[in-house]
Every structure is written in structure tokens, then in C-alpha cells.
Automatic annotation (TrEMBL):
Name under which the protein is recorded: Putative nucleoside-diphosphate-sugar epimerase protein
SUPFAM superfamilies: Acid proteases, NAD(P)-binding Rossmann-fold domains
Keywords per UniProt: Disulfide bond
Gene Ontology process terms (BP): proteolysis
Active site residues of this protein: 390, 617
PANTHER family found in the cross-reference section: 3-OXO-DELTA(4,5)-STEROID 5-BETA-REDUCTASE (PTHR32487:SF0)
Top-level taxon in the UniProt lineage: Eukaryota
Any Pfam family matching the protein: PRISE
GO molecular function: aspartic-type endopeptidase activity
Similarity section: Belongs to the peptidase A1 family.
Gene3D superfamilies found in the cross-reference section: Acid Proteases, NAD(P)-binding Rossmann-like Domain
CDD domains assigned: 5beta-POR_like_SDR_a (cd08948), pepsin_like (cd05471)
Amino acid sequence: MVIALGPPQRAGSDEARRDRIIISSRTPPKTHWQDPRIEFVAIDFLAPVNEVIEAMQHHCRGVTHAYFTSYVHVDDFKLLKEANVPLFETFLTAVDTVARDTLERVCLQTGGKYYGVHLGPVKVPLDEDDARYEDHGLNFYYYQEDFLKAMQQQRRWTYNIIRPNAIVGYTPGRNGMSEALTLALYMLICREQGEKVRFSGNRYYWNCVDDNSYAPSLADMSVWATTQPHTANEAFNHTNGDVFFWKFLLPRLGAYYGVEVLDENAITAAGDHEHMENDFRMGEWAQGKKPVWDQVCRKYGGNPEAFDWGTWQFFDWAIGKSWPTIGSVTKARKMGWQRCDDTYETWIETFRVFENAGVLPRPQVGAKGKAASVEFQAGTPAKPYRLLFDTGSSSAWFVSSDCTDASCPNLSGYARVGYNASASSTSVDLDSYTLIPYIDGDGVGGFATQDVFSTPEGVTPALEWNQTFLAANESSWRFITADGFLGLGFSSIAENATSTLVETLLWDGKLDAPRFAVYYGTNLADNGTQNGLLTIGGSHEDTYVDGTVAYVPLRKESPYQLWRAALRSVNVLAARTPNATVTVRNGQPPLTTDPEGTWPTSNTTWPFYGSGAAVFDTGAGRISVPDEIIDAVYFNLGWNVTKLMNGEERMECQHLNASWALSFTLGEGAVEDDVTFTIRGDEFTEPGAQCMPPVDNSGGNGFALIGSAFLQRHYSVFDFGASSVDEYQPKLGFGRLKKEYDYLYQ
């Protein structure tokens, strides 16, 4: 409820508002307003009326305008009257008693259920003067409106009734009907599980015209209606002023979250124009999904409690109808109400408010790369395992057969193969238990083990060797579509008693050359169907590279730990003239196709004066620039990173184009020996993927993290330079892909 001392500002006027606005609910809100006029009073309007009057006495004397928006929801519509009738009667009796001499207008918010839209087919459009249907005494809105009108006839104050239709808006906690939050939870969980979104209603409603009420617009109408003399004692429908079809709206909302929405062919429920019918029940789908939501919050932000705020059964009703429920706003239009809202935009704005409040995760900043996996065999007899290869770590591990659903939860949809030491005659327990924490908060724990590894069947040459790894009986990696990790950093940071697979082969003299190379392929699906190639002991640049591979030595360290090069500088280059593009030159700074003598829109370089470093990490999806330049990078591209993070601006796909590029210059010796690697704006996109802000900040000064968003655009060579640790001269090489091997051209 909102109780105003003095009339609210009239819509469109410059009149000053009064100095106090009293807001009341049963429990104090978690959100605190900066407006000094707002005063919150906790009142339970289901308490005895004399107690409510007593609670109001001090705060609400002098009230001029009272707005009732309270509602107690239960999924059984027949039970709504029991709580909602006394709720309003107590409120109105109390405020009328306390402020009878000053009260000017009372506003009651009801809704589409006034017309019986929740029960079955109705006449559309819904008009304010439609005759009441036979409710058998169950429609609590009738009781509320009758009570309001009866009391008003004995008073000087007047009233308004506002009837919204399917409200889309933000609340700072649980409420009974939250379409936007529920749909966002559903889509984010589907995205996390790699699932496509299905419409849970029926084919009729998928193809049926519908409408919504945007909460801020609903508030505006309430103020407008209660501040106009000619609108006294009138009821008004509220909708956004447009209509939509779910078959068009839902895919657009899915694109915001980067999920694919299945079309009508995936809907089995027909909808018979008489009864509710759902293709599946959201309430049943949501069972057991809380751990997935918790993982979303850990990875991307958001409030873990929000899952319990989802109104799954209500959402089933909202889109399970088999009849239209369009409301008419003609009466309000004739009396001066002018606001219109684009329904799609109201959904997006509502998502963003939830994001800004920390309820939903904010959009990911940084192009999302794909995890790549490779198969090896382990044990005697040999058994195949799929491992994600990760140059940002150095230990190999499998989930073990000792894992339980609790200790190694698996929500990936991939049936993991657990390593069973007792089933292998060559397994050796190295008597060491180790925990491995990862930078994003996930981790594993397991026993250091040695067993025979071998190359997969059909791979030549066929090799066997003894490999150390962890047999993990604890893992929080719920969503990886693999049996474990293959660390490809340096053994100096591998866990106790283990070494990296590549260095084990290198030290055993089994490799033709002290290097490995990565080609991600043209199929980047994170499901084991990738067509890339991990080459150990050599490289195939002649096959994949357009031109030559440019090499840069690693930053001098003792011992070497990660594939880390010295970062000389970062540059943003943006062309000025229309249709001009950036030309990428592998190993050299890029150029623009601007006419000679034209200064680019941006050609800004941030040097790091010997303190910068860039780690190339196949286990990271994004490209991250040093913290101290993130704002400046976006500024030079014409964007505000804070507004992008807050949802005030949106990254449109047309912004990711060939007119600009981001470059990293690497080297710590003579400047003329530096090497520059570039990724152009249009290379941050993937066919069919959501367009996201291209980079984020790394979490450290002078530190850049270059993940698969860059690596999958190149053929990458990781060269140790020698077979002995004491003689290592490691270097990194990158070559631009030939078109036939580049996923952007497929």
C-alpha cells in the first residue's frame, strides 16, 4: 500500500509533490529508497482492525490519497476471497478512520480476474462496463469494489479502480504472480544446462494475441487517475497499449539470454478453447533445479533465494489458457490517458531492474568461448575418457567411481565415465590426497594416482606411457561435458606427485618435437562433437594457417608456470569513414581502410612499462583486459562499460563489426622484436550466439587473460623450445586460419 500526504504530482505537470509518502507492507522491505519523503511503516492488514487503526494513528493523519495494491495469492482461485476481502476492508476502514477529514481519493487495484479471465472464455476486448459474470460468490474483487463504493457514498472522498492485465515488473522479494522473474529463471537455467526453451502452454495460446501491464506504467495511470477531477469514481483498465503473440515475443526474450526457443512443432498440447492445457507443468519442471540456479549465481551473480520466488504454478495458468484476454483502454484514452509502452521493451527493462538489484545475474561481459575436449585411454584394460584441455592449469584429473551424486554432482547431461582404480591392474596409489581450487570458485579433490595411458584407437602413432593424475572423489564442476580436465600448463605448478601429460611424454622421449598445437575446428559445440585437433609432439600450420605463424617468447620465469607472455601494450583501433574496416595483420599492428590522411576515430594505446603479462588459457572462454584500462577501452569504442554492466545500454549485434579491433602487443626485449596479435570486432561473434560485450576486466592490474574467444580464431602453437626443463625456451605462436578452417566462414 502507498499512502500519500498531499496529492501526488499530476502526470505531465510541474507541481511540487507533497513532503511525505508512506509505504506499508507486513514485512519491512530489503530495498531502501533515497527519496527523503518516503516513510515505511510495517502493518499487517490481516490483523484486527482496531490494531491497524492504532498502528496508523501516528503516521497517517493528514493523508490525502490512499493506494491499495496488496494481494494474497493462492494457486486455488476459489480460496482467494478468504484473505483478500478482509485485507482490503481492514485497510480502507483504518485509513478512513484515521484520515477522514483529509482523505480526497482512494485507489483500489484489482485486475483481469474481475472479468473472469481465470475461469474460461470471456468477451474480448474487456470493457470496464461489462456485466459481472456469475461468480457463485467467489470473486473477491466484487466484494472489494462493492465495499469501496458503499463507503464512498457516505464520505466526501472519491475513488478510482485500476484493472491491470498480467503485470510485468520488479518486486524486491517474493510475490504471488511474477511472470518476468519466473521466465528469466527458466531461461537462465535452460542456458546453464544447455537446453532449448520450450513454451509450456499450448498451441492455441502460442498463436493467440495477448497483452501485458508494465508496472511503472500502472503506477503512472494510478497517479493520473487520482489527480484528475473528471476521473473521480471511475474504473479504468490498464494495458501497455499494444498487443503481442508469444510465438514472436518468446524467441526475442530468449535471444536476450542467448537461448534458442523451440517453435510450435515442439508443443504437443493443442488448447481446446474451453479448458486450461499445458504442454508441461513448470512447477514439475522446476523440481530439483535449485542446485542449477545456485551454480548460475556462483558463476555469474544473482540471488540464490530468487529461485524460491519463482511463481511456477501461476505461470502455468498465465500461458495455459485457451482463450484470449485482451483488455480495452479506450475509456482511459478518451479521458486523457496517453502513455504507451512496447511490451518487449518492458520485459527487457524488467529483467534489467532485477539484474541491477542483484536478483538476476547481469549480462556476461566478454565473448563466450567454447570448452574443447580430447579423448585418451587409461588403465588396463584400457578405457576411454574425455578430458577438457586447459592451458591455464597443470594437473590431469578424472572423476572416480567413488564419486556420489552429492560429492560430484553432474548436471551437464553428459554421462561421465568414472575412473575405477580397482578395475585396472596397472593402477598405483601414490598415497597423496590433494585439493585443486580453480579461479572461478570450482574445485576438485582426489588421490594422486599413476596408471597406463594410451592414445585412442585409430590414432597414430599408438603410444603407451605411465601418467600421473588425480582420481577425484570430490568435484564441484557440475556442468562440464567431460570426465575431467587435462592440464597443459607447466608441471612446476601441478599438484603433488603429478606432472602434465605433455611434459611426461616429452621427458620420456616419446615426442617428435617439444610442442603441442590446438585447432578448435568449425564446430564449436560444447558436447564432444567438435571437429578440432589437439596435436602433441608437432604442429600442422601448413594445413591450417593462412600465411605464417608469428611467435613470441614467454616472459622469463624460473620456473615457468603458465603460458604467459610479457604484455607491452593494449590498443584500440577504430576506423572513421563509413564502410571503412580494420585490416588484421598477423604479428603486426592492424591498419584501417580509411583514406590516406584520415585520422581514425580511435587509435589509443595503453603501455604497461615492463609490468604487464598476458596468459593464454584454453580453459577460459573470454578475453579480459587489465582492470585499470577496462573503462577506457569501452570509452574508445563509444560505449560505457558501467551502463552495459547495469543493463542501461545493450550490446547490439551491429556493434560487433569490422570497423574496430583490439590488439595485444607482446614482448619484453627490443621493441622492434615485439609481436602484435589482433581480434577484430566481427570476430567476437559466433553464428547463432547472443551478442555480448566483447571483453571484461581480468581482476588485476597489468594482467590480461586471453581465452578461447581469441584462440578459436587462430591456429595456436605452444612450444617448449627443448626437451629438458633446464633448457626450456618456451614460445607461443599464432596463425590466422584459412577460410575453409574458420568457423566464421562456414
